[in-house]
Amino acid sequence: MTIISTALRHFKEPTKEQLTEIFFSIPSLDSSTSDGSSNHAGQPDKMEINAVLSLGETEDSYAGKLHIMPPYLAFSSLDKKSVRFTIPLSTIRRVERLNARAGVYALSLLTWHGMKIIVQLTSLRPTADLFCSILREALKVELQRGQMKQVKSFVKTCYSEVLVSDSSNAADNEHEDGSLITDEKDGSIQDVSYHGGLGLKFKFPGDAKKLREASKIKLWTTYLRTHGRNLTLLRYPQCTRLVQVGLPNRLRGEMWETLSGSIFLRFSNPGYYERLLEENKGTTNTSTDDIEKDLHRSLPEYAGYQSEEGINALRRVLRAYSYKNPELGYCQAMNILAAAILIYMSEEQAFWLLEVLCGRLLPGYYAPSMHGTLLDQRVFESLVQKHLPIIHEHFQLVDVQLSVASLPWFLSLYINTILKINGEQLLQIQDDGGFLNLMRDYFASLGDSAHPNSSDPRARAITNFQELLLVSFREFSVITEELILSERKRFRGEIIHSIESFAKRGAIRNLRSMGRFTKEQVGLIYDALYKAMCIVPPPPAAAPAPSLFTTGEGHEEKPETRIGLRTFRQFLSEIASWARDEKIVMNGFQQRIDREVAEHEFIDRLFYFWDTGCHGALSFQDLVSGLDGVMFNDLMENIEWFFNLHDKNKDGYLTKDEVLTLSESFLFIFRYEIGDAYLGAVSRFMTNAFEYGDALLPPSEPSEDGSSAPIASNQPYLNLATFRMVVLADEVLESFFETDLSESFKLQPLPEMELPSAHSGILGDLWSTIATDSNKKMFNMLSDEIGKTIGKHQVVNKPSIGRYTKLEEPKARESLLTPTLRKSLSKLSLSGSSASSTTVAGTAPSSSSTLSVNTTLEPPKAATVPDSASLSAMPLLQAVNAAALMERTPFAIDDAVDNDEEDEDDALDGHDDQVMDEVDAFLEAHDSGLSEADKAVANDLLHAEPLK
């Protein structure tokens, strides 16, 4: 029992639009609201324009791009990191065009928090007019939606509003460590309107004095008053500096959701968290069971999680997330993440931040395969090898795995720094245990002085953590986000193949029984199943229907992947030669093999025959057991297997209708065989089956008019012993059941499936547009039409069995038959008739794709259907025979895989990364991208009046 997932193979590199959304930390514009309707339906178009941003005389002006992505307005400086903001359009109170000098097109934006933002549109006048028109329409839409009315109530939930308010004394009502002051009269805690975490009641971790909470609060208050807050925060260089200095505990939760963009999800989905919990109240599933197991193992040392209040809050957040994302549900370590952020955030804030962390910031970290974690570990090892070669070589020498310690803290600037700071101690390590102990001791000492023996009190005040930051930005500023993204793209294929190999071994190991297969053969079955699931993904697993009865066994089956009928057809086409239609097409320009998945009642019957548990779907174990029941059989076992397959009610008899269905199954399997040998065998089988069946029927009483009573459709007609006798009476059918049936199931190594290539750049986009399946199909159709015009178009169907490679007459066997039957069979001789068509030709018996074909085809001859005494089956047989001789359509789906690969994607344009060893040096080294003349124009706009 196991889960087989193909999600990693369906990974696609984000589009340019998606990258823009990720960069500005805004929700996907294609997402839906909590009520299921489109969140941004009817919004105006998106647009970007060159602009210069100005904010007061104390701030420099910055050149960059202004984006309108309704319902958001965003800006980014040219270097994409100095200045950035994303604000909802609903927070813009007024937009005015400024009366500036000639040739200058400038707008004044007044936000909800009173900030006056000046943007100078530096594109051509028609482009600027178009941008303003789109902005005007977008603002009208926001006004009609009523979003602007929600801003007032929403900002009251943010602590920053209380912090910057001159009339509020909320900060005075809290202890320095973040806990609330109780009322002296009744001892109750004073109510607060803003959202906060468990730390407001159970105190925040750490020493507030050592963390300098009071100083941080003052610095952030000053910044938020002039640069906006929560929904309207502008990220200037000072914001980056303050983040590196540290976030105050009471403001930490709000800044997390503001900088990550989860605040926009909370703003656009009011009340969704509470409704989600209410709608799923009392719902239990596998995720909820796993959550209950981990609740009391989530930061148990923190006082908040030693009480029911903290445990219940954590339970609600984790359950709500599992309800919202049922495909992911709950994964281990998600409880630690949620428990940490709940100390600083409310439940609703933590819920939306968890959505952003798992879906956008850390994709694949909290997933069953942990592919994001494994990929970033591989990136980390590559960076260590490149930037710290001495430590890397030592670890290779002593066989120390970096991933042993890097799982909880790698892929940040601090990782390489930690290794560099502790480089001398690391070189003394000889095993993984020493590595873990060193890292554990270092993390425990982050708050200690980095220079405790220094005579300078300022040096003694520097902690190990501050030194960590300093070395990070000085020594490893070259490790940029663009570099990490490039490395992820480079190693993604390697990680996916590793995960798939691990999942394959796990699936084989978890099988209850491999039957008579070897482990290698089971691996080939898995490969065929995995390929089928990639081509035709199975439907999502549904929860089992509630039952009134229980088995009392006290356990449930583990979840496993099951495939439906469509995926089973694709799987069987890889295993069985008769389950696919392979056509060799020659048109004078190319020779190709078109493969189509066959559809027939016989395949559907086999699907339900193997579904012994009546689930309506097949598991990997079902497929292995089903193939084991047919691939190793001898003659008698195969005859019995085929009989049982068509015995619908499992009573040991075939009815007359089931005999006809069995004959149709024969015709389906033999549909592309050369000559009339198999067709004649089916004809004789039907004649003998009906003659024996009629002979075995009990004598029926004649009706009133003297005629025999008709046979009921569900009346037992042919038993297994008689069926064996009829089969053994024909040499062709005997040979089929003795060897051909089992050998038609072939387990062959499949070529390694290529991962979807990620094209980038002009050439990559052009090639991905041209090299599509539909375009290749159109080209094949065009070449086929030209081939028909010039008389060179030929289609040859590949036989499924391939025993006969030339036209032969059917052979009748006289053993086991009575003289009466022999006389009857003599009438069925087809010695004077043979048929061929352009759809059949002599081919090699191999079923591989490499096939040598005789292109000299004879014109079809007239077919004659033999006279027979085979009751009512002959009209059906005649129709099937006539259909088999018709030329099949040459226009088939082209399943050929394009193996051409583009060169590796060009690396993204790099940007100079300013080294911030000190705060002042960081600001002085910054370049706004403007000349002195541009700065003068921007400064003039600060004093310009709106146009009348």
TrEMBL record:
PROSITE patterns: EF_HAND_1 (PS00018), EF_HAND_2 (PS50222), TBC_RABGAP (PS50086). The keyword Repeat does not apply. SUPFAM superfamilies: EF-hand, Ypt/Rab-GAP domain of gyp1p. Residues 246-437 form the Rab-GAP TBC domain. Residues 832-856 have a biased composition (Low complexity). Pfam families: RabGAP-TBC. Keywords: Calcium. Residues 832-867 are annotated as: Disordered. Transmembrane segments: none annotated. The keyword Glycoprotein does not apply. One of its GO terms (molecular function) is GTPase activator activity. Residues 634-669 form the EF-hand domain. This is Rab-GAP TBC domain-containing protein.
